[in-house]
Inverse folding.
């Protein structure tokens, strides 16, 4: 060793904590290079691992997933409660608008919440997302009338979705997971039968949509 | 590398949110893979895959924040690596000679160069030449973003021992880097050539 520049402990700690402006520049740069963002080649196993995740998830239904379903459901209902409240306040009779909103929450809440951004931000230059069209397929699936959904899944267009979900009967759950801020109305659970909506507005104005997203007063009629 | 993966992201991945899991993977995997390269050399990809399968299987048992998750991932990866080495009955592959990196064009933009895959590769290889305890401590802290306490858990050591090992590692790296012959404009990418200096000693 020709030179022995002492590295102060505090500087070393700083570097180890990820600082790039401490210590001798070559060392800082070495560490920056070692901790650089993902290089595309490093994510080569991404699809395989995600596939394993999916397979495991679908093979072993976790109790927690149910809580997530409930959360998604609650969110969707909150949106409705807000819509109803708005309608009730704004025009009273504009129930048509409400039913226009309700049957297709997917279409109207097109913007996923920030926390659910489908594009992982940590993968510059990475290969395409493993499931590029699934979200779109889910939306398309949810947009179909109840009666046509089962048939739709048999068409090749939805094949990728069925495969990703792990089976015909799992598509609804899968889509709820994928589009957590909205909810495809599952066959059987009719959230928005336009038959007797008159029960809703009466209770609705008291709902403060932002207060208790977990317990909208409209819940019983939907589950 | 993104060092922060929120607790809610982990939670969503546990709840079956595939996109959340993907995001988690993209945030944690590169550091994990680089750490494994220090441990098992060119077998890192295979061992990383095994580790991720374990993580997928046991994800529901995990509880904790981002630090804890990275520590958990590192522990699993380390166990897989040790198993792997035992099974293969050999030491980690000796880093390839640094000749590969001598050919690198001198770049105008040293910072951009430092962020290329080849620079990352060279940096990890150089760290891998440290004594194992120092190399691991440096990788866990500076690359995987673990604090001394979490890294200590991974390595089965006290935080103080991890700090000391990491500091010694950095000291050694700094010496290697500054003792490499440099001209003004190449000073910032010297780590690319540093292993040669070490070999020449």
């Amino acid at each position: 060793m020709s030179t022995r520049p002492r590295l102060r402990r505090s500087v070393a700690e700083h570097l180890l904590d990820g600082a790039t402006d401490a210590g001798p520049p070559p060392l800082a740069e070495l560490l920056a290079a070692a901790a650089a963002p993902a290089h595309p080649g490093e994510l080569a196993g991404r699809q395989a691992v995600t596939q394993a995740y999916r397979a495991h998830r679908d093979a072993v239904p976790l109790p927690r997933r149910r809580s997530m379903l409930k959360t998604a459901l609650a969110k969707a209902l909150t949106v409705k409660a807000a819509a109803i409240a708005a309608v009730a306040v704004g025009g009273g009779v504009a129930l048509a608008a409400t039913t226009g909103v309700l049957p297709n929450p997917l279409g109207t809440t097109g913007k996923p919440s920030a926390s659910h951004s489908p594009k992982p931000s940590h993968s510059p230059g990475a290969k395409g997302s493993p499931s590029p069209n699934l979200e779109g397929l889910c939306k398309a699936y949810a947009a179909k009338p109840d009666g046509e959904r089962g048939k739709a899944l048999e068409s090749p267009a939805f094949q990728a979705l069925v495969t990703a979900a792990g089976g015909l009967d799992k598509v609804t759950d899968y889509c709820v997971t994928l589009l957590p801020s909205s909810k495809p109305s599952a066959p059987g659970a009719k959230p928005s039968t336009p038959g007797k909506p008159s029960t809703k507005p009466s209770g609705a104005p008291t709902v403060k949509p932002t207060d208790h997203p977990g317990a909208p007063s409209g819940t019983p009629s939907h589950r | 590398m993104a060092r922060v993966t929120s607790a809610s992201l982990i939670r969503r991945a546990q709840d079956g949110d595939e996109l959340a899991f993907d995001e988690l993977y993209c945030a944690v995997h590169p550091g994990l893979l680089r750490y494994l390269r220090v441990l098992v050399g060119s077998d890192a990809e295979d061992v990383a895959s095994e580790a991720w399968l374990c993580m997928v299987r046991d994800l529901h048992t995990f509880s904790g924040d981002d630090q804890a998750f990275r520590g958990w991932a590192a522990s699993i990866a380390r166990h897989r690596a040790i198993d792997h080495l035992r099974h293969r009955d050999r030491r980690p592959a000796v880093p390839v000679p640094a000749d590969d990196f001598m050919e690198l064009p001198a770049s105008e933009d040293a910072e951009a160069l430092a962020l290329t895959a080849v620079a990352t590769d060279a940096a990890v290889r150089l760290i891998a030449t440290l004594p194992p305890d120092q190399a691991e401590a440096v990788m866990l802290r500076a690359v995987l973003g673990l604090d001394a306490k979490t890294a200590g858990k991974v390595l089965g050591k006290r935080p103080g021992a991890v700090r000391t090992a990491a500091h010694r590692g950095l000291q050694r790296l700094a010496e290697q880097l500054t003792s490499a012959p440099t001209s003004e404009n190449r000073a910032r990418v010297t780590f690319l050539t540093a292993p040669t200096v070490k070999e020449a000693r």
